[in-house]
Amino acid sequence: MFCQAHLACIDVTFTPPxxxxxxxxxxxxxxxxxxxxxxxxxxxxxxxxxxxxxxxTVERIRKSYLECPHxxxxxxxxxxxxxxxxxxxxxxxYLLFGAVFVALDFTLQxxxxxxxxxxxxxxxxxxxxxGLAQALxxxxxxxxxxxxxxxxxxxxxxxxxxRDE
Length: 165
Prior knowledge:
Number of helices: 3
Strand order of the largest sheet: 1-2
Helix content: 55-70%
Low-confidence stretches: 1-12, 22-26
Strand content: under 5%
């Protein structure tokens, strides 16, 4: 057994007023039914549609569909532009602050290491200087070699040499 499908449709064509740009200059609204539709039902639907036209509902719906997409696209473009600007500014600020903090950290580390090296050299000078000066004055080579071995074994001393000038 075959089912017969009946298509009932009421077409309403909207034409936008002058000055409204829309991709589709005309649009259709309707309804469809797969069962044979009673003419009484179609008459009721036509009356309802005529009432919606008369009170301006159809016109408001048409305007909302024809005009809102353009406004929302403009807002979307503005939002995208604002979002992009905020993102660029946030990344630029992050990079700027990062560079400033890295430079500040390098400067502070340099000064700290320089101060520690100066303090350690001063400590070595104060520890070995007087005894080495006395050993050199007395020309005591055993004591000079002992100072030299002790000085070259320090972890902070990379190299040492004895020269006769």
